[in-house]
Fold this protein.
Amino acid sequence: MNRFVPFNPSDIEQSIPHRFSEQVRRFSEKTAIAECGKSISYRTLDGWSNEVAHAIFALRGDAPQPVAI
């Protein structure tokens, strides 16, 4: 059952990472991505994205640098 969950206007002011963390907290075992009969939960997607982020941080060093996604 797909149910629209309304959000507060103040939610718009939050960063994308913060909003995603909220979704992981609220719906960790729900499907985040589904394609061709396979699905990935919010918890799994969060783990994978954290692995990618840590790998990027390890490669870029201490100085801030732009990252293409």
Observations:
- Residues 18 and 65 are 21 Å apart (CA to CA).
- The beta strands are 31-35, 38-41.
- The radius of gyration is 15 Å.
- The chain has two helices and two strands.
